[in-house]
Amino acid sequence: WGYNAYGQLGNNTTTTAKLPTRVRRVSSIMDIAAGGNFLILLDADGSVWATGHSNYGQLGQNDKINTNTFVQVKSENGQGYLTDVIQITAGNYFMAALKKDGTVYTWGYNRYGQLGCGNSTDKLLPVKVREVNNIMQITAGGTHLLMLDSDSTVWATGYNYYGQLGDNTRTSRNLPVKVLDSTGNNPIRNIKK
User: Fold this and answer.
1) What are phi and psi of 138, to 5 degrees?
2) What is the H or E stretch that residue 145 is in?
3) How far apart are CA 17 and CA 61, in angstroms?
4) Interatomic CA distance for residues 47 and 63, integer angstroms
5) What is the DSSP letter of 59?
6) What's the pLDDT tens digit per position in 12-40?
7) H helix and E strand count, the chain
8) Distance of CA 158 to the CA centre of its chain
9) Residue-wise burial string across 48-84, b where 16 or more C-beta atoms lie within 10 A, e elsewhere
10) The dihedral of CA 87, 76, 114, 146: what is its sign?
11) What pTM value is reported for the model?
């Protein structure tokens, strides 16, 4: 329900809805993430579905075309679909997906390096976040991404003007860095999922 000019409600219209409407082409949903005028759903089978605004490729279709019905997010090479996903999160104009094997894939807006792929180029298809493994949980801010690994270490990438990466700097990062403890000298530890 709500604003729907870009089709972000996924109900095959662009009409604002004052009451909840059932979305189309989805069934066993286990996670939902909303970004800036787009919506992403995680199906119980590990597939990811998106609808709405795609000005930065945040729908993962290898294009910038808006849609008002859910489309399945494509794979890294665009030849198949993203699979084995267990959690999703959304920033303003980007998405992240955690896979069963502990890898994280991101796509969409990347001006501040929030996709964690080593550059600041927007991505129209999912790319693997570099420098991290065995991730257990993810969450996104507007233009940054946080990841918790199996060693209870927190990693961050993206916009950092206000210190939101927790690395004792105000430097934005395009690769993940460890979040530091209150001394500013050691990685924060013992964070539980």
Assistant:
1) -135, 155
2) strand 144-149
3) 26
4) 19
5) T
6) 999 999 999 888 666 799 999 999 999 99
7) 0, 12
8) 12
9) bbbbbbbbbbbbbbeeeebbbebbbbbeeeeeebbee
10) positive
11) 0.95
> What are the CA-CA distances from residue 81 to residues 39, 49, 71, 134 (Å)?
17, 10, 10, 22
Find out whether 153 and 187 touch, Cβ atoms under 8 Å.
yes
Tell me the CB-side half-sphere exposure of residue 83, using CA atoms within 13 A.
5
**Is 139 exposed, middle or buried (CB count within 10 Å of its CB: 0-12, 13-18, 19+)?**
middle
Q: How far is CA 113 from CA 24, 135, 182, in A?
A: 33, 19, 24
Of 158, 174, 24, the C-alpha closest to 166 is 158
Token pair of 120 as six digits: 């600041």
Tokens, residue 114: 């929030």
Give dist(CA 47, CA 100) in Å, integer.
12
List pLDDT tens digits, range 119-163: 999 999 999 999 999 999 999 999 999 999 999 999 999 999 999
Number of residues written out for the chain = 193
Q: What are phi and psi of 25, to 5 degrees?
A: 65, 25
